[in-house]
Amino acid sequence: MVTIDDVAKCAGVSKATVSRVLNNADMVSDKRRELVMDAIKRLKYEPNIAGRMLRKSETKSILVVFSVLIPEFMNAVTAEADKAGYTILFYYSPAYIKNAKPLSPVYQGLVDGVILQDVMLDQKVLYDIMERYPVVLCGGVMSFEGRDENSIAIDNAVVAYNMTKHLIEKGKKRIGIVGIQLGGKVEPKFSRDREIGVRKALAEAGIDMIDSLKYIGDVGYSTGREAAEYYMSLSQMPDAVFCFNDKIAIGCISAFKEKGLRVPEDIYVAGFDNLGITAQFDPSISTVAQPFNEMGELAVRRILSEIQGELTEEVKIEGRIILRKSTDEEA
Amino acid sequence: MVTIDDVAKCAGVSKATVSRVLNNADMVSDKRRELVMDAIKRLKYEPNIAGRMLRKSETKSILVVFSVLIPEFMNAVTAEADKAGYTILFYYSPAYIKNAKPLSPVYQGLVDGVILQDVMLDQKVLYDIMERYPVVLCGGVMSFEGRDENSIAIDNAVVAYNMTKHLIEKGKKRIGIVGIQLGGKVEPKFSRDREIGVRKALAEAGIDMIDSLKYIGDVGYSTGREAAEYYMSLSQMPDAVFCFNDKIAIGCISAFKEKGLRVPEDIYVAGFDNLGITAQFDPSISTVAQPFNEMGELAVRRILSEIQGELTEEVKIEGRIILRKSTDEEA
DNA sequence: TTGTAGGCGTTATCAC
DNA sequence: GTGATAACGCCTACAA
User: Fold this and answer.
1) Which of A185, A222, B11, B225 could serve as a FRET partner for A141 with CA atoms 20 to 30 Å apart?
2) Which fold has domain A156-289?
3) Domain B1-47: CATH class, spelled out
């Protein structure tokens, strides 16, 4: 391991000087600063986290706990943190965490803050973490009571409302929704919000939401298949199905097609998330795109401002509906 | 923060004794051990990780650098490490890394070892990391010269050979392949290996590989679309296309379908990776499944044995071809 | 502007 | 068995 001593020797200065260069103290002569920078590069030196932590109780790294991989988000988070000299570490976790066990790195104090992306925890565990670190929530899977500015998500009700309005304008009246349950039990906030949006659009159009057309299951293709089978078993099928994620929509469409139903001719199906595959699928799938780039950047900026005790401006991020063939013959 | 000193004072012993109690050294008298345990409980003492890390230069965590998310792999890695009391941290990186910048956690002494999953680095950077930490390679994206037991991947040539044999048995003779390039430049080892397998199967069947039927591009749907367009522009099209990943296969099939070509009736298409979507797609897609669970477990066991300086037995893992409609009318 | 020195909390090596 | 003590790598008074 390369230490600050090695750098100092290599650059022919004292380790205090090296430390000063690292910490941007500007009372270092340009000449020595350059010497030091050179040595750092040559030796590929990076300050040892343990040493720094012990001394400053600061690690310059942020933990992102995630349950869903979104490359765009990961890229954005990593890049934004990098700008500020922070390192992002990812920790993979199930979408729903009941106890704190899966979060050991959090408790080891190896990071300065935690971003929870698409992870739903028991409120007690959440508050326990929040006592130790700044926490930012991402993805709308759960809500903070109070600290709403630390919750980063699109307004799910609004986009669901817009999508539903589109279906209604296309003449659909019997709209089924497929909601999401995590760990076979809990419906995350974003799913409940989307339902609220759907109901609002229906209500405004004077259409009754038919409760029996709501199906709920976990994330994944099979939920879509089950939903499709359920709908096909009804005496009167829905004329459109709004699935609360794309995998569900894909499973749903596949099951319909296998039984000879045509999408969109016989029934509309919409998804959510704008996975790459939705543009490739036959039919291409209407869905909702989230600005994952912005979300990642925002999450990092938010957590850094918490860590550094500053305030940031409130930024709104918005989902955008994308209409494709599965809900629009002419698309 | 309560330290080991506080505990020592509270229990009326030296901190050395407290440390011994904590580290299960059994040369502590029962009487003092109890005293210490009592104090620890009363003060809610938890050893400071930074201190321990600094002293032992052991972090009990492993970094997994990945460019492709495979939930099965991540689960397996996390679970297997957990068994041994290790924590897995993930670090997201592009598939092809030219310099060491994206690997800062490695240099910060945050981890005891590194698993590189589907990440291709400059050889110089790789060797540099290997000088500092045990490294295990996963996914066949590059090769170790020498240390082959630390390279975990299926035998890509063999499965590609098997898939090609299947195509040949189905009567196909003009077989196109779509290879993979990372960062727009480098063809990873697994792609080259797959080509070797294809060529071998063709050679054995006495069929000439038609070089103009090889297309190469990056991972992703659009490569498949480009390949399809390329093939359709030829005076004589291939009768089967073996794409070296599923996204490419999907893009390829989509483009064919849009031009009115039917898969499998007019042309066969096979993929690689067994993404969930391949079973849902229309037509369902023949592909190769990799045992990601085993790979994850194996990778962790391998790296732990490196860290602890033990030897493990050599285990072979194998890919498995899965035949579906896209290469088999009756499937 | 630079270097020296002390200490953050822990464990390991000594003596006793 | 037990207790002093010396590191581990870093940052920051303080002295020069």
Assistant:
1) A222
2) Rossmann fold (3.40.50)
3) mainly alpha
